[in-house]
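thought: fold this chain, then report.
action: predict
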Amino acid sequence: MKRDLIFVISILFTLTCCNSKNNSIHSYENSISSRNFEFKKIDSKIFPLDSTTTGGNNNFQYIEGEGKNLIAYLNKNQNTLIFYDYKNEKLDFKLRMEIEGPNGVGNISGFLVNSLDSIFVYSYRSAWLYHINRFGKIVNMYDFKNSGKGFISRPYISGNQPIMKRGDFLFLNNWGSQREYYRNKDYPESLLAKINLTKNEINYEFSYPEIYSTGVWGMQLHVMYNTINPLTSEIILGFPIDDYIYVLKDGEFEKYRQGSKYFEGVNPLSTKSRINAPPPKMEVHNERVQSTYRTIHFDPYNQIYMRVVYKPISEEILALNDPILSVFPKASLLILDNEFNKIGEVDFDNHNYWINNIFVNENGIHIMKMDFVNEDILTFDVFKFELDGKY
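observation:
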């Protein structure tokens, strides 16, 4: 699939809202905060990797429960979830999932640990979601291939585009318009796949913002990023080309504009009604030379949102074909309060981090280190956010 090809090329680079018929839209223009803050490194957490497990993976989850603090990390090569003890930084246990057979779940590409005895695992290749227990036995399963109404449904799941659970519902990121090389006037309400766990039903909601009707954007600029606020159960959505953040509440959507100082807008591939799909490298090049928004994360301890911003890579740097500088952009972390007012930005210009790979606990904000030398460890640097002189 072309979507897979471009995503493989761009993953090294990246490691409905506006016309919903059933929901009201409220738009907010937020002011820039003048409050002082500090964002500083205070610690590191280092976990061992075996010879079959690679670092830099964006399929991971921090888990608290049953008296344990764990990090679950997906080894796709072995179809295995590796659970690390967070405190001791050691392997706790592994759960290897069968690919075929009565409890076969295919090749796993994403997961959600609801509890150690209630785990959802997803296979992008087959477009099936499986509910398994701690022994890898299938409890239930959900088929996305036949659930779309007039569109193809194949959710994309990762640690920074996670499965989100809200009550008896699961929400999965189902980005992709299926018409990426058209100038679309209307998009189907298909971006969130919503599973009713009680009724065993799959429905869809949310469509692309109006800005997407202004040009032909190609594959990667159609990516949607998501997170959930566990304190309010609000679902937060963002798009690479859009200043706005979209908030899904009960019965309505709200949007908040809080742009980065580095974001200058994004030019589409074309403003024609449609184009032939360009070579993948050309499409990725168009993305790299522009500033774009990326993943969104929520810190419930400080009650802040963090949105990753990619700075453009210059044509001169791209021409160097440097394996680091020409591939990985400089970035910033845009910090917002819990009402989406801008607090400030933190620059990450040294190419030391997989900046989208973030989790938060009471000890701080953990960002995965980029390490091409020490391939037998997985490292998260821990940062403290301090606002107005107080943690």
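thought: worth noting. Residues 2-15+17-387 form a domain with the Neuraminidase fold (CATH 2.120.10.30).
final: tokens above.
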